[in-house]
Design goal:
The chain is α/β, with parallel strands linked by helices. The protein has helices at about 1-45, 65-75, 90-100, 120-130, 165-170, 180-195, 215-225, 240-250, 270-280, 310-315, 330-345; strands at about 55-60, 80-85, 105-110, 135, 150-155, 155-160, 170-180, 210, 230-235, 235-240, 255-260, 280-285, 290, 295-300, 300-305, 310, 320-325. The protein folds into 2 domains: about 55-205, Endonuclease Chain A (Endonuclease, Chain A), CATH 3.30.870; about 210-345, Endonuclease, Chain A (2-Layer Sandwich), CATH 3.30.870. About 45% of the residues lie in helices and about 25% in strands. The strands form 3 sheets. Strands 1, 2, 3, 4, 5, 6, 7 and 13 form an 8-stranded mixed beta sheet that branches. Strands 8-17-15-14-9-11-12 form a 7-stranded mixed beta sheet, sandwiched between helices. Strands 10-16 form a two-stranded parallel ribbon.
C-alpha cells in the first residue's frame, strides 16, 4: 500500500512540475509574440497614426482639479486603480479608503525608492494596507522607477504629468488628460494589472505613449514631424537624441521654445539650459508656478502629455505613461496662453 501511495505521489509531483513547465514556456512565448507585434507596429508609426480622441485637458495650480479627481473616486462603482510615483495627498488617500469600504476594487502601485525621498510613500502604503486596500510597490527588476501618474476609475482614465501630492494641485504647473476611449482604457487596465502583479507587458494603442515600450519612438516621431514650431514644457532635460532632433529643427529655421523649471528648483537644469541655449533653442524658466509638466505642442496640431521627461532614463528604463492627441484650435489657443503666462510672451 505504501509503495502504491509513493508511486501516486511521485506521479502527481511529476505531472504538476510538467504542467508548470509548459505554462511557464507558454507565457514566455506569449510575451515574446506580444513584444514582436508591438515592435512591428512601432516601425510604421507616424503622426498620421494618431487617432481622434475626445479628451478634456485640465491644468494646475488649481484645487478644482483635485476636486475633480476626488469626485471620480467617490462616484466609482466597480474599480479604482492608481499607479503613481508619489501619493501623499490626504483627500485622495481618504477617498480611496472610503471607496474600499463601499466595496469598490481599489488597487494601488507605488514607487518604493523615490529619488531623494526613499521613504515618502511608506506612510501612504501602511495607511492603505491597514484599510485593506490592495497596495504594492513596483517590480524593480523590470524598471528603474515606476514614474507613472495614472488614475483609472471605472470607464474613465486620467493621465497626468503630476504626482498625487498637494503641491501638484497648489504650486506646480501640471496637465491632466481625462478620457473614456474604450481601447485606451482597456489597454491602460491591462498595463496596470501587469504592473500590479509584476508581469512584463508590451501592449499599447496608437495614442498611448508607454515607457519603455514606445515612448522614444513616438515622442521623437512627433518632434521630427515639426514644420512650423515646437513648444515644450520640461521639468528637466537630458537626452542626446532628443537634443539632436531639436537642434536640427533650429538649423531648418523651425523655432523651438522650451519652458523649464527654474534652476533654483531643479539645480541640474543649470547645465541643461546652457546646453540647449548653445544649440540656439529658446529656453525660458519659471519660478512660479513650478514647472513639473511634461508636454509638447507641435505645429499647433499634435500634443503630447504624460509622465515622460525628455531624458534617457525616462524614455528607455522607467515605466511611464503618456498620451498623444490631435490638438484642436481651442486647445492650442489655451495651451499657448498658459505657456505665455508661465514663461513670457512669444513672438508673433
Amino acid at each position: 500500500m505504501k509503495k502504491i501511495l509513493l508511486v501516486l505521489l511521485i506521479s502527481f509531483l511529476l505531472s504538476s512540475c510538467t504542467n508548470e513547465y509548459w505554462q511557464f514556456h507558454e507565457q514566455k512565448q506569449a510575451i515574446e509574440t506580444e513584444k514582436e507585434q508591438s515592435q512591428n507596429a512601432l516601425q510604421d508609426f507616424s503622426v498620421s497614426k494618431i487617432e481622434d480622441r475626445d479628451v478634456e485637458i485640465l491644468s494646475t495650480p488649481d484645487k478644482k482639479v483635485l476636486d475633480r479627481l476626488i469626485s471620480l473616486i467617490e462616484t466609482a462603482k466597480k474599480e479604482v486603480y492608481i499607479e503613481v510615483y508619489i501619493l501623499t495627498e490626504k483627500r485622495i488617500i481618504q477617498a480611496l479608503k472610503d471607496a474600499k469600504k463601499r466595496g469598490v476594487d481599489v488597487r494601488v502601485v507605488l514607487e518604493k525608492n523615490v529619488f531623494g525621498a526613499t521613504s515618502i510613500n511608506s506612510k501612504t502604503f501602511k495607511t492603505l494596507e491597514s484599510a485593506w486596500v490592495q497596495v504594492t510597490y513596483d517590480n524593480s527588476k523590470l524598471y528603474n522607477f515606476i514614474h507613472t501618474k495614472l488614475l483609472l476609475a471605472d470607464d474613465t482614465y486620467v493621465i497626468t504629468t503630476g504626482n498625487l501630492s498637494y503641491a501638484s494641485f497648489t504650486t506646480n504647473r501640471e496637465f491632466y488628460v481625462i478620457g473614456k476611449n474604450e481601447a485606451d482604457i482597456g489597454t491602460l487596465k491591462d498595463i496596470f494589472l501587469a504592473d500590479f502583479s509584476g508581469r512584463e507587458i508590451f501592449e499599447s494603442t496608437p495614442n498611448l505613449v508607454i515607457s519603455p515600450i514606445n515612448s522614444r519612438k513616438k515622442i521623437e516621431t512627433i518632434l521630427n514631424s515639426a514644420r512650423e514650431s515646437i513648444y515644450l514644457y520640461a521639468e528637466n532635460f537630458g537626452d542626446d537624441s532628443i537634443l539632436a532632433i531639436l537642434s536640427g529643427k533650429i538649423q531648418d529655421k523651425i523655432p523651438v521654445t522650451i519652458c523649464m523649471a527654474d534652476p533654483t528648483k531643479v539645480p541640474s537644469n543649470t547645465e541643461a539650459i546652457a546646453t540647449l541655449k548653445s544649440h540656439g533653442i529658446d529656453v525660458r524658466t519659471s519660478k512660479k508656478p513650478i514647472i513639473h509638466a511634461k508636454r509638447a505642442l507641435v505645429d499647433g496640431r499634435y500634443s503630447y502629455i504624460g509622465s515622460e521627461n525628455y531624458s534617457t532614463n525616462s524614455l528607455d528604463e522607467n515605466r511611464e505613461i503618456g498620451i498623444l492627441t490631435k490638438s484642436s484650435p481651442e486647445a492650442t489657443k489655451t495651451f499657448l496662453a498658459i505657456f505665455e503666462s508661465d514663461c513670457g510672451k512669444l513672438p508673433k
